[in-house]
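Reply to dn_fold:

You asked what the input looked like. This is it:
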Amino acid sequence: MSDIQFPNILLGPGSVTATVLDNNGAPATVLEAGAAFTVHADWQISPLAALLLGGEWQLAAYVESIGPGPEQQVGPTVTIPLTGATNYSADITVAAGTLPNNPAPPTSGVYKTVTVLTHTNFGAVTDVVGIVEGPVLRIG
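and this is what came back:
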């Protein structure tokens, strides 16, 4: 779990979590390259933030290879409209074959994930953001 950063302390607190799910919907850290997987995020904001914030949430997931290998966004950026609610969730589906299968050394096939939740209003990114590091994945 990670805190959501608000530019005004009065709008907080907020938190965001991210879990990687295998193609069967179970939490996993070892995934098959030939099967799709999902990054699932849940986040909560205070009632005051829910009342005052308009616009949209944007959720994106990234991987960074441990050692040589891909460093990229995985799956599309997902947009979720703010509705006045205090609890939100969204899924990013990562297509099969996005990351290489059983790469040869020195490429490890191990990746650190980062899930980023940003807020936009009238098309502009604001200072409201939540970043979740992890989990570390093995693709093979």
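Residues 6 and 137 are 30 Å apart (CA to CA).
Hope that clears it up.
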